[in-house]
């Protein structure tokens, strides 16, 4: 039997204090790691309904944490100190 271990890189991401739900935090983290995603990609990857995603993304864009570019959502760069970009 083979003793194979999977490489799992460790990534430290500081989260802004603006999250009021775990769903918003999950979407934000996904976009930080993947850089950008469409609503269909988010739905498939996170297993969340589009109606929920649209609501969360609206909140994230209103708080300037995420931008929309065409059909894609892109995480805005956050400085290491958590201050304004």
How do the strands of the widest beta sheet line up side by side? 1-3-2
Helix content class: 40-55%
Q: Round the mean pLDDT to the nearest integer and report it.
A: 83
Beta content: 5-15%
Tally of individual helices: 3
Query: How widely separated are the two ends?
Result: 51 Å
Structural class: alpha+beta
Assembly state (oligomeric): single chain
Defining traits:
alpha+beta; 3-stranded antiparallel sheet; disordered C terminus
Can you walk through the features of this model?
40% of the residues lie in helices and 13% in strands. It contains three helices and three strands. It has helices at residues 22-34, 39-46, 50-62, and strands at residues 36-38, 66-69, 72-75. Strands 1-3-2 form a three-stranded antiparallel sheet. A hairpin with a 2-residue loop joins strand 2 and strand 3.
Sequence-ordered SSE layout with sheet pairings:
Blueprint: H1 22-34, E1 36-38, H2 39-46, H3 50-62, E2 66-69, E3 72-75
Helix pairs in contact: 1-3
């Amino acid at each position: 039997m083979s003793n194979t271990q999977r490489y799992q890189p460790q990534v430290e991401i500081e989260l802004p204090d603006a999250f009021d739900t775990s769903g918003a935090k999950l979407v934000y983290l996904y976009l930080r790691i993947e850089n950008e995603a469409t609503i269909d990609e988010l739905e498939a990857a996170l297993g969340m309904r589009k109606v929920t995603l649209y609501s969360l993304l609206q909140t994230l864009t209103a708080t300037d944490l995420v931008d929309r570019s065409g059909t894609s959502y892109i995480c805005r760069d956050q400085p290491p100190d958590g201050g304004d970009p």
